[in-house]
Design brief:
With about 220 residues, this protein is of the alpha+beta class. It is built from eight helices and nine strands. The longest helix has 19 residues.
Amino acid sequence: SGDQLFCREAYVDGDAVVAHLDNVKDLIERLLDGPAQLSRFEIHGPAAEVEKTRARTATLNPQFFLREEGGAYKLVQPTFKPLTLCSLMPYFTVKDSAAVKALMPRFTEATLKEEKCLFYGWNVNGDRLHCQEAYTSAVGVRKHLQNVGPLLSEMLNGPATLERLELHGPASEIKALREEMDAFGTVYFTTHGTGFQRYEAKPPRRERTRAIREVVRA
C-alpha cells in the first residue's frame, strides 16, 4: 500500500511462530538493515500461545492482541496454492466493554454460517479490539458485510468506534470491493504475487455444525 509493506502470516501455535522467526532471522536483519524499517509488529492469538513468543520477539517491540472468544477456522491441508484470500482487518476502540463482549459472540455465530469465510475471531489489546478474519474472495467479503451489517451498526452506535480498517487481497478483488469499502475509509494492501496459502475451501459439514454449537454453548 504505497510505501507500506505488510506481511500477512499465520501459524498453528506459538512454537511455530518462534520457529518461523528463527528460520527467517537473517532475512529480517537484511530487510531492516537499510531497505526498510519496521513500523509495527503485532502478534494475535490465544494468551497461552502468545506467551510463548514474548521472549523471542522482544527486540521487535510487538503489540500483543489476545484471543477474547473462540472464533473458528477451517482445516489446513498440505498443498501449496497461490495467495488469493482477502483479509479484512478492522481495529476498534472500545468505549463500552460489557456491550462489546455481548456483541462479539453474535458476530461469530452469524459469520460461522458463511461458507466463504476461512477464519474469524476477536483479539484484544487493552481498549483496542481487532477482528481477525479472511475470506476466499471479494464475494465472500461482500456477503460478510451484508450479513453482519446490522451488528456492525449496533457496535458503532455507542459501544465502539472504528479506529482503522484495512483490506488485504489481490488487485482484482480489491477493485471489486472499493465501492462499498471506500465509505469506511479503508486502507488497501494489494497482494504481491510471491505469497502462498494452505487451507480447505470448505470444511466438512459436521465440523461447521459442531463449531456453531460450541459458540452457542459459550
